TrEMBL record:
<feature type="domain" description="FAD/NAD(P)-binding">
    <location>
        <begin position="3"/>
        <end position="321"/>
    </location>
</feature>
<comment type="similarity">
    <text>Belongs to the NADH dehydrogenase family.</text>
</comment>
<dbReference type="InterPro" id="IPR051169">
    <property type="entry name" value="NADH-Q_oxidoreductase"/>
</dbReference>
<keyword id="KW-0560">Oxidoreductase</keyword>
<dbReference type="InterPro" id="IPR036188">
    <property type="entry name" value="FAD/NAD-bd_sf"/>
</dbReference>
<dbReference type="InterPro" id="IPR023753">
    <property type="entry name" value="FAD/NAD-binding_dom"/>
</dbReference>
<protein>
    <submittedName>
        <fullName>NAD(P)/FAD-dependent oxidoreductase</fullName>
    </submittedName>
</protein>
<dbReference type="GO" id="GO:0003955">
    <property type="term" value="F:NAD(P)H dehydrogenase (quinone) activity"/>
</dbReference>
<dbReference type="GO" id="GO:0019646">
    <property type="term" value="P:aerobic electron transport chain"/>
</dbReference>
<keyword id="KW-0285">Flavoprotein</keyword>
<dbReference type="Pfam" id="PF07992">
    <property type="entry name" value="Pyr_redox_2"/>
</dbReference>
<keyword id="KW-0274">FAD</keyword>
């Protein structure tokens, strides 16, 4: 019978595995492979970076939430040999497949920015999130000895989802650390190239988020074009001017953008920013046995003609359809087109505030109600990847 190999146990990978376990023909072998033994709720990484959550708070043991007919293998993927239908690993013997799912997640993208890798801290996984909090905490702790004002300055590059949710969480973190180490005011600055933060929201909600953050001491610079990162400063220009300005900080956090896994590039796929354009059925046109989901896929929006934004919600929706299509392919049956209907967009602004925009019906919420909606959304995600066991994390 068929051998299905699922690479990556994120939202898309786990969702596909759990669905296939129910609908795949009897005798199908399903291997779920990840380099880690735990699934990380990546939409909550900002909390670890701000020190308001521990790694275990946003992680699930993969083996404990997958069905018995799914085999979990801990291994690090190096390359997909799609011509010979094999997956190669850094630390495991190669594995052949009949169908493969690429759902290896994202990596932080620096867009070639000078100094970004050397002098800023990217947020992309548990180790990098923990490092960010370690740097913030140690700089503020050491201020009394160093008397370096930059130890009390935090700069966050990028004001999309990740940047804004981190900023919201840092409001309370700054208060806690200020009191803990008895230091002067902690200064937090956000730099965003676009004229508006959170462009995925309507202007009213984006303005609410801007006003809330500003009222709570966050300085937001929009229209700030970052030119380079220095050892203790973010260098930027504004408008049409070439005059360089600086935000000085010893804690510089990079949340500007992401791309798909480097495995995509290393395997020789035709891709942009490590994202493969998929068909309406979520597979690769020239290799229909390859399904690509989540951050590694460019699933096109028929209305805009642009790739759909990669979110946890999208990944879970793709997983449900991909599993159905793989089962159909095994049975030589017609496959189902992927049609995406977003349920809405939600962003937290700290533990008790947020904004949310629902699509059908069109509803906008802000403040505490939106925070409750964010929690409900998170619980739904947890149930999707971990079932009842996943809900034990909340």
């Amino acid at each position: 019978m068929a051998h299905i190999v699922i690479l990556g146990a994120g939202y898309a990978g786990l969702g596909t595995a759990r669905k296939l376990a129910k609908i795949a023909p009897e005798g199908t072998t399903i291997d779920l492979i990840d380099r880690n033994t735990k699934h990380v709720e990546s939409i909550q990484l900002y909390r670890v970076a701000a020190g308001t959550a521990q790694a275990d708070d946003i992680s699930l043991d993969i083996a404990s939430v997958i069905p018995d007919n799914v085999n979990f293998i801990q291994a690090t993927v190096s390359k997909v040999d799609y011509e010979n239908k094999k997956v190669e690993f850094e630390d495991h013997a190669e594995i052949s497949y009949d169908y493969v799912v690429l759902s290896l997640g994202f990596r932080s993208e620096n867009f070639g920015m000078e100094g970004a890798d050397k002098y800023s801290y990217k947020l992309q996984d548990i180790p990098t999130a923990e490092k960010i909090y370690q740097v913030i905490n140690s700089n503020i702790r050491d201020y009394k000895q160093t008397q370096d004002p930059n130890d009390l300055n935090i700069a966050v590059c990028g004001a999309g989802f990740t940047g804004i949710e981190l900023l919201g969480e840092l409001i309370d973190t700054a208060k806690v650390l200020k009191a803990k180490y008895n230091v002067p005011e902690i200064n937090i600055t956000s730099l965003e190239m676009a004229p508006q933060i959170l462009p995925m929201f309507d202007s009213e909600l984006a303005q609410y988020a801007y006003d809330f953050l500003s009222k709570n001491g966050i300085k937001i610079l929009t229209g700030a074009k970052i030119k380079k990162i220095e050892q203790n400063a973010v260098v930027y220009t504004t408008g049409d001017s070439d005059e360089e300005q600086r935000v000085y900080a010893n804690s510089i956090i990079w949340t500007v953008g992401v791309s798909g896994s480097d495995v995509i590039k290393n395997s020789g796929f035709d891709a942009k920013r490590n994202r493969i354009v998929v068909t309406d059925y979520l597979n690769v046109e020239d290799h229909p046995e390859i399904y690509v989901l989540g951050d590694d896929s460019a699933s096109m929006d028929p209305q805009s003609g642009r790739p759909l934004p990669t979110t946890g919600q999208l990944a879970q929706a793709q997983a449900a359809v991909a599993a159905v299509n793989i089962a159909a392919a095994i049975n030589d049956a017609p496959q189902k087109k992927f049609v995406y209907k977003s349920m809405g967009t939600v962003a937290s602004l700290g533990p008790n505030h947020g904004i949310i925009e629902m699509t059908s019906p069109h509803i906008k919420l802000k403040g505490h109600l939106a925070s409750l909606a964010k929690r409900a959304s998170f619980e739904k995600v947890l149930f999707g990847v971990g079932g009842v066991k996943g809900l034990k994390k909340v």
